[in-house]
Amino acid sequence: MKSVTARRSGFRRQFSLLAATAFSLFSSALAEESLRYAVLLHDGQDIELIRDELRDAPADFFKAGEKPFASNGAERSVQFAGTIPIEGKQQGEVRQPLGEEPPPGSDVEPSYVSIAVRRAAANPPAFTVNVEILQHWGSYVDRATRYMAKCQTPARPNAWQEVTHTGSFSIWQYYTPSEYSAPSATETSGKVTPLYRLDIRLGQLSRESLDKLPGYQGEHRAIIAEMPWWREIYSIPIAPGVSFALSKSFCQKDKLSEPDHEPRCTTRVEGSLDLTPSHLVLKLGYQNQAQLKQDRRITPLGDEMVPDTWYFQPFQYPTPIDYPVEGAWCETTWAERTYSPCTNVAAYRLTKISPEPIPSQP
User: Fold this and answer.
1) What are the counts of helices (DSSP H) followed by strands (DSSP E) for the chain?
2) Is residue 30 in a domain?
3) N vs C: which end of the chain shows fewer Cβ within 10 Å?
4) Where is the signal peptide (predicted)?
5) Which residues contact residue 350 at a Cβ distance below 8 angstroms, ignoring those fewer than 6 apart?
6) Residue 146: inside a domain, yes or no?
7) 27 in a structural domain
């Protein structure tokens, strides 16, 4: 009797080992969870065309050494930023030079893109994404533009997804789920998070134009919002109850190590979206550039929102700021003579880019 029991016990152990080996081999043949990223450089006027092209684009739409062409025949300026393996991990990052490398022997720091991700939810999957891009500022090799964005959104499996967009580039993410741990449709039913794209414009209008804004209808408002004269243009996906942040700095590279240099040259927008049974409430805070810390004011913005509608919000600073700013390069974002902040109006719009949650079946 003992020999039969021993044989059975040995068989169970052998079966367990075989099953574990088979599962390991099967798992290795399946796709592992990963996030890949691409940077598209463009003038901002064709962003809607880019979104349409990437809506159903395959994973290899961006191939190393190849430049994809737009549907209108224009050549796309694209850089594949890299792939972050996330299988069994909570976080990861990638950093790549952006654009052409400086000539040999040059002391110019190359432009770069850095992307760091952290897992925020497992079912359905969501990630917090931090983006940083440093670019040379025009022909001034000693000055740079630093753009930073932070958002948390549900990951759309096996599809390109816009992470952030500003006037000169957009960043796209492709999420590959783990095939042997991908949740079924029944597991995720009722858990789909509504996702919106927030478009923000910051600029300057004359007093006469500001006074006319309340009387403009939807179509006229859209025309104004899409005009190219805005000083700052941002887009970012947001979900209700999750904070986000955007910032842009015009810096001198040799002063980046100084603790207070970059804050003096930075504009920042941060906020969140609240979802109530009857409406959406957008809460924003806009921080202006200023040399002195006490002059870096946060202007509250936001409103009850209806999707697909442009909202304009004029604002002004409580007291004028009047002192010189280092370098003529600041004149692109500050008033030329008084050096006081010249942004006096914000425009923003929400566009739904995912469905409402589907109730779970009993």
Assistant:
1) 6, 16
2) no
3) C
4) 1-31
5) 196, 197, 198, 273, 280, 282, 305, 307, 308, 309
6) yes
7) no
Q: Evaluate whether residue 132 is within a structural domain.
A: yes
DSSP string, 23-59: HHHHHHHSPPPEEEEEEEE--STTHHHHHHHHTT--G
In this prediction, residue 256 carries a pLDDT of 72
Domain that holds residue 151: 37-102+111-352
**Taking Cα atoms as reference points, which of 158, 88, 149 lies closest to residue 122?**
88
Number of domains into which the chain is organized: 1
Q: Are 125 and 90 in contact (CB under 8 A)?
A: no
ω into 341 cis (within 30 of 0): no
Contact 94, 84 (CB under 8 A): yes
The Cα–Cα gap between 229 and 54 comes to: 27
Q: Where are the beta strands (DSSP E) in the chain?
A: 34-41, 77-85, 91-97, 112-122, 125-137, 140-154, 160-166, 169-176, 196-203, 232-238, 244-252, 266-275, 280-287, 298-305, 311-314, 345-352
The length of the chain, given as a count of residues: 362
